[in-house]
Protein: High light inducible protein
Amino acid sequence: MTSSGYTSDDRGRVNRFAVEPKTAAKAEPVFGFNKDAERYSGRLAMIGFFGILLIELATNLTFVQIVTGA
Structure:
């Protein structure tokens, strides 16, 4: 009976402990370290790679040529 504060061990002895209050779950932050950060960074990397590919196809120059101005 955990809700009343009584617990018993494997020998049947009853112990009385303070009952921990229930806490409300905090919402995860939108920015920073959260469970979706890996997914978002992967999607941004795919968008960036595809964008570079489109620029290379449109200009007929490689990415290195575009960056260095050669």
